[in-house]
Amino acid sequence: MDIATQAQIVLRNAQYETWSWSGPSGPVTCFESAALMGFVHIFVNAEALMADWQASQKTSLARHAASLRGAGVKAWNVYSVLLTAERAPSLARAIERIEEDFTLTRKIARTAVTTAEDVERALLPLIGLRAQPLLGATNFEDRLRSRLKDVPADAVSAFLNETPAVEVARILGARS
Q: Could you count the other beta carbons within 10 Å of the beta carbon of residue 149?
């Protein structure tokens, strides 16, 4: 899987503008929205990530310095996303610590990014909340009746049959 391409797909689906350029240590996917901007750097392995992330960050910032100067408040929301497909348990804590370094940009650093789901999981901090209701082919009247089981059945039927509110209230009042 091409991590850079998948990152572009995920970011575009989240309404970011994206573009690519070839950085000194590999392809860089740039992204921007109304609220933030950033750079996705892909490293060949975890050791390269650890060794080169600071230089890659500085290069990206220098290359886009004019845009950043004109970005206003958005310049406070610049992200460096640092990804590699390599699983590196021995470097896991050191890579996690990169995210605690707020120098120049905010950071997201991940290893073991090998699937589209891994890319999306890595980019979750940049993606707005998405709720996917689980609505299947069901009878909504039956669902409503099951949820209103404490309400008298004739009042529920009157409500569902578009009986005037006064009559539904009368039915409910008679049962209390």
A: 8
Q: How many CB atoms lie within 10 A of CB 107?
A: 20
103 falls within a domain: yes
- For residue 29, give the 3-state DSSP assignment: strand
CA dihedral 30, 35, 97, 6 (to 10 degrees): -40
The DSSP element (H or E) to which 17 belongs, if any, is strand 17-23
- DSSP readout, 54-112? HHHHHHHHHHTHHHHHTTGGGGGSEEEEEEES---GGGHHHHHHHTT--SSSEEEEES-
CATH code where residue 38 lies:
3.40.1350
The first and second tokens of residue 123, run together, are 């980019």
Domain range for 107 is 3-126
Q: What is the pTM of this model?
A: 0.72
Same domain, 117 and 50: yes
Which residue type occupies 3?
I
> How far is the C-alpha of 126 from the C-alpha of 77, rounded, in Å?
10
* Per-residue model confidence as pLDDT tens digits over 51-81: 999 999 999 999 999 888 888 888 889 999 9
Q: Decide: residue 151, CB within 10 A, 0-12 exposed, 13-18 middle, 19+ buried.
A: middle
